[in-house]
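Dear Dr. L.,

I hope this message finds you well. Following up on our conversation about the binding site, I have prepared a predicted three-dimensional model of the protein together with 0WD. For your records, I am including the exact sequence and ligand specification that went into the calculation, followed by the structure tokens. Please feel free to forward this to your student if that is useful.
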Amino acid sequence: MSLLKDKNILIMGVANKWSIAWGIAKKFINEKANVIFTYYGEKSKANLEKFLKEENVENPLLISCDVTNDDDIKRAFMEVKEKIGVLHGVIHSIAFANKDELQGYYYNTSREGYLMAQNISAYSLVAVSKYARSLMTEGGSIVTLSYLGAERAVKNYNVMGVAKAALEASVRYLAVDLGSENITVNSISAGPIKTTSAKGVKNFSKLLKGFEDIAPMKRLVKTEEVANTALFLCSELGTGVTGENIHVDCGYHIVG
Ligand code: 0WD
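The resulting structure of the complex is given below.
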């Protein structure tokens, strides 16, 4: 069964092969989605070209997009509209904070660092949703990635935890705005996965170890498991779910 046949899905946030967005992309390609990508920077573009070739995806649509720039977002969605027309899903897998603010005391967060984390990691979902909805004329699903640091004070996660709290609140407000248009908006709160972004959090390896010890399932979550939940949300199986934050973390949040 191909769960995403005839669905046009935009994936934002593939940087390299460890990116959660790439795990989701592979799953979606396998489920016969027509996957479109935005990328940030030439290195990410080159990686995407290489990976898609390996997956035998012909003539993929790759569009550059810096989510801190409204004109760039608008241009990217214009291009999606011109080349594809209708969108059925968006995966927002984007976050950034200064490495030196992902450690130590949260009270040392600079105004600039705080605003940047909010801008890239939380506001971007709002801006993206505005343009995505105009192309989701057949209904759709918007999915973003969050982390437990939104709900709890996780050591060193600091400014990113506050940005994720704003992201999760945005999911609820956007779900209300877009529900009557048959567009669902949800977040997946993933357990820690070794990626480039995650390695920016001080003592991330220690966090991974503690996670395995405490999580009910006594292991780390796999990127593929996060991708499976994204698949559920973007397919016909998830149509009644909106405004939700689904933990895909081997149960860590119930005990950790
Ligand atoms: O443990 C983890 N890895 C978890 C990640 C646990 C729970 C949640 N998440 C979240 C992250 O916070 C993020 O929202 O998952 C999402 C994806 O993160 P990832 O896959 O862990 O990290 P990565 O592969 O680095 O992808 C994030 C990407 C950027 O990568 P780089 O490495 O270049 O910073 O976000 C993109 C970029 O591709 N990005 C931007 N895209 C557009 N405009 C921008 C920007 N201004 N800045 C960063």
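In brief: The two ends are 37 Å apart (CA to CA).

With kind regards,
A. P.
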